[in-house]
Amino acid sequence: MGVQAVAAVVLVAGVTGGIWGVTRILPHGGADEPATCADGHSTLPAKRVSGAELCRALNRADLPALLGTPDEQARTADGDDGWMTLDGGTRMASPEATVTLESYSVKLSASEDRFSVSQGLDLLPKAQPREILGHPAVLYSDRTIALTLDSGKAGSGPGGVARSLLVARDEKEGGGSFEITLWRQDDVAPDDAALFRVAERVLPTVPGWKTG
Predict the structure, then answer these.
(1) What residue ranges in the chain does DSSP mark as E strands?
(2) How many domains is the chain built from?
């Protein structure tokens, strides 16, 4: 019998620019020490939050406890200074970071556009209005796809649920947003309370978060 590898793929509705983003998390061998974020040189314009900064904000020592899995630790921690191309050819910075544990994966991304978070209520699947530390937010669900590789043969099937919070950078929705997405490595629905705990602790530490 061949060795089987499983990957969790989460399709997150990218309302900014109206595209779909894909994040794939492959199994990672257990390490004695938690994964750390690389200090790479940012390719984004000055004063824009980078993928490395998002990674450092997300990869907190207390992240496992916030997720309700205090005995776990970060297996992978990655940041990316990506770009997306909108209709018409406009390029927009799309930095993101992902931290994976044994039970959970968490993704943090940033947007610099003028998109109003409240517009997400009409554009995102089963969206619900929320508030994070006085900032307008939208809670919504998406599905993951389970990919398998067994004896060299690839396959796919339905995965579990991903839960996301799209949060305005300031209290008056003056432009720009952050998004935190949480999904489990199995097909069990993630804990919304854990998602909110992570958002409330992580977002105030991200460059560009505004208070007052």
Answers:
(1) 4-14, 19-25, 76-85, 91-100, 104-111, 128-132, 135-150, 153-168, 177-184
(2) 1
